[in-house]
Write a structure and sequence with these properties.
Helices cover 66% and strands 0% of the residues. It contains 13 helices and no strands. The longest helix is centred in the N-terminal third of the chain and has 28 residues, at 18-45. The protein starts with a helix and ends in a 10-residue tail after the last helix.
Length: 325
């Protein structure tokens, strides 16, 4: 965390201009394309390029999931979702047909890479980021109302037609399978929190406490292969109790306040580099947070600290410095 805080400070001290913003975007897209290409190679070969100790596909996955040069398909998917949001931000605020078409082509390639990861958490993160982009680009209220209505309709559908949705709330095995092993982890995490609600079991002690309480049991996928929460707020609550959860909530409020500062169309309908970058950062930060609600690694992800630092430095750009581009 100390090194990540230093990274955040370095980015926050950066003086941005249109040239640097474009160079950063091109570099980010270039890295993503290399990773997607590596993912295509993995998919064609049916085996990973990089492994730890010769490990293969996860025990939770009966199918091959591309992870590219990452060690985890979900983290690979998270990165691609962030890059796709950056490209979409450029496309939404661009007046140039060539740039819009180029962005659309890039999104198609990146989407292909994301699909091969089969990361449901990354799909959810991308959707959350796109909702943020729509709310910032157009009127927020209609977008949020439509989003709420769609979520409500989805919940009603899932509950009313369990045979179609595959979600049977009264069947623990069904819920466990539908959530890819998350259900028992969540209920186990809540049990740990209830044992020590104020101060928790100690930082980094979720796995030890989970095993010590014999909460790691055989799942519908076979033997329990993980004792990690995969839900960041729950991990904080179980490890650090209400004290840590309060600190984490304060961090979130401060973080979202930073990334959404000046993330509005204050420079005209077509935007400028500074505005586009602020919008992209807000969408990306939201996407990463949503991803950690159903996976893991919020403060442990350097992307979070880079986005926070970028939000601070981008909000400090004088309006006159974003008048072109």
């Amino acid at each position: 965390y100390a090194l990540f805080a230093l990274l955040c400070g370095i980015v926050a001290a950066q003086k941005w201009d249109a040239k640097l913003l474009r160079a950063s975007a091109v570099t980010l897209v270039g890295v993503a394309l290399v990773l997607v290409f590596a993912g295509f190679i993995e998919f064609s070969r049916g085996k990973y390029i990089v492994t730890i100790g010769g490990s293969g596909p996860s025990d939770f996955d009966p199918y091959f999931r591309v992870q590219s040069l990452f060690f985890d398909p979900n983290i690979y998917g998270r990165f691609l979702a962030v890059v796709m949001l950056v490209v979409t931000s450029v496309m939404l605020y661009s007046q140039r047909t060539r740039r819009v078409l180029g962005a659309a082509l890039l999104l198609a390639v990146l989407w292909a890479g994301l699909v091969l990861s089969l990361s449901q958490s990354s799909f959810a993160a991308l959707l959350a980021g796109l909702i943020v982009l729509a709310a910032l680009r157009w009127r927020a209220r209609p977008v949020l109302i439509a989003t709420g209505a769609a979520l409500l309709a989805g919940i009603i559908f899932a509950l009313a037609l369990p045979s179609v949705s595959g979600i049977e709330l009264g069947n623990g095995s069904s819920v466990e399978k539908t959530t890819s092993g998350r259900f028992d982890l969540v209920t186990g995490g809540l049990t740990l929190w209830s044992q020590k609600p104020v101060f928790g079991h100690g930082s980094g002690d979720f796995s030890n406490a989970y095993r010590a309480n014999k909460l790691a049991k055989r799942t519908v996928f076979g033997p329990a292969v993980t004792t990690k929460s995969h839900t960041t707020p729950l991990t904080v609550a179980a490890e650090q109790g209400l004290v840590g959860l309060a600190a984490f909530t304060l961090l979130l409020v401060t973080g979202f306040g930073a990334v959404f500062r000046r993330a509005k169309n204050e420079d005209g309908p077509h935007g400028r580099p500074g505005l586009v970058a602020r919008v992209a950062v807000a969408a990306a930060f939201t996407a990463v947070f949503v991803h950690t609600l159903v996976y893991a690694a919020f403060l442990e992800d350097p992307l979070v600290w880079v986005l926070l630092g970028a939000a601070v430095s981008l909000a400090a750009i004088p309006r006159r410095d974003t008048a072109r581009g």
